[in-house]
Specification:
The protein is mostly helical. The protein has 19 helices and two strands. It has a two-stranded antiparallel ribbon with strand order 1-2.
Length: 395
């Protein structure tokens, strides 16, 4: 399902400090689900600002808190009690105070029972997770903005992340050591992107958020539709805060291992010594994509192309021939100097000198549609001998 994200955008407004207690009481009632008396009991227990709720994030502090709070309010046998009465009434709220519990006569012991439903406790845990999400996004959590929609999104993400607490952080890909030639930059970039997508940082967000193009997301990033919550967090997780500091330091260590000994290391070492992985990555990208480097990389790639031939002899297979040419074609395209479809076909076929394939190569070149479309399906239509080899190659 596509996800319409409005939570981050709406949570960007800070709660008015003067009305924070009132906002918390209303939030504890709706959408969380506590009664007015229960909500006031929570506030009077010391949880009367958003920041005080952070202490509940440690371990199973929520269960322990409500266990103790229930005992405090329901064990009333040895002293005279009065009911918990909300001291703040918000505009529009019911101004009737809760009814005084029954007592046999004035001056006798009054027993007050306050219930904290399990569902409401779970919703409060969702609010605590919502606060963590706001931290990831660099936003201030706001009880005024925590509504049913945002609670539903936070609950969905909380359930999604639960398995990762017990899952070893591994990747199905391993990036190669950085090569001596910057022409391989795009291969490095693709490898690193796949690697970082597989691994999750301290905030349970894929590390690939560290290498996204845009440093600071804007309103459009927060409000657009995303296919998954992971994609949303990759695009919108803040590049500051404790989660970023830890993740960025890890990334710097990874880049150090891959770049050490390669020419590119000298261009990024100043950032690596500061444990700034993102800055090192951007510096490497800027250097690799500079006009001078692109020009020399194009020259080297074209020289490699000229040296590739398939004779049908020796250990150099047709599959290897195809793979080598495709890599060069892709590199030229990434470097901003692509070959046309016609040139690819002519070049691909003209570098084949295996006499057993000559007639089939001529068949490919003799067809206008084939000659102008470097596509394995088109080539296979006119050359069964080449097709038996080409169709086995993944372009």
């Amino acid at each position: 399902a596509r996800i319409k994200k409005t939570m981050a955008a709406s949570s960007r407004s800070a709660t008015d400090v003067a009305g924070e207690r009132l906002a918390l009481r209303r939030m504890l009632q709706n959408p969380i689900g506590f009664s007015d008396v229960a909500a006031e009991a929570i506030l009077q227990a010391g949880y009367n600002t958003v920041e005080t709720f952070r202490t509940m994030m440690i371990g199973d502090a929520v269960s322990e808190f409500f266990k103790n709070l229930t005992m405090d309010y329901n064990r009333k046998e040895n002293r005279k009690e009065t009911p918990v009465v909300p001291v703040d009434v918000m505009e529009g709220d019911d101004e009737d105070t809760p009814p005084t519990p029954d007592s046999d006569e004035p001056g006798t012991v009054t027993k007050v029972t306050v219930e904290f439903p399990h569902v409401a406790q779970q919703n409060l845990r969702t609010f605590l997770f919502y606060m963590k999400i706001c931290d990831r996004l660099g936003q201030q959590p706001s009880p005024l903005k925590f509504n049913q929609d945002e609670m539903a999104f936070a609950r969905e993400r909380l359930i999604f992340e639960e398995p990762f607490k017990h899952k070893h952080n591994t990747s199905s890909t391993t990036p190669d050591k950085f090569p001596n030639t910057i022409a391989d930059w795009f291969r490095i970039q693709n490898q690193m992107s796949a690697y970082l997508n597989d691994l999750r940082g301290i905030a349970n967000v894929p590390y690939s958020y560290l290498i996204r193009e845009k440093g600071t997301p804007d309103d459009e990033d927060f409000e657009r539709e995303y296919d998954t919550t992971d994609v949303f967090f990759i695009q919108c997780t803040a590049h500051h805060g404790s989660h970023y500091d830890v993740d960025n330091k890890w990334f710097a260590a990874e880049l150090y291992k891959l770049a050490d000994g390669a020419p590119i290391f000298n261009h990024i070492s100043v950032h690596l010594t500061k444990f700034d992985g993102r800055a090192a990555w951007l510096a490497m990208k800027t250097y690799a994509q500079g006009d001078a480097n692109k020009s020399s990389a194009v020259t080297r790639t074209k020289a490699v192309l000229e040296g590739i031939h398939y004779t049908g002899k020796g250990k150099y297979t047709f599959e290897r021939y195809t793979s080598d040419l495709l890599k060069c074609y892709t590199d030229l395209e990434n470097l901003g100097s692509p070959m046309s479809e016609h040139d690819k076909v002519v070049h691909f076929v003209s570098r084949i000198s295996d006499p057993t394939l000559t007639v089939h190569c001529d068949s490919v070149l003799g067809n206008d549609e084939n000659r102008n479309n470097f596509d394995k399906e088109q080539i296979s239509h006119h050359s069964s001998a080449i097709a038996s080899k080409v169709l086995a190659i993944e372009y």
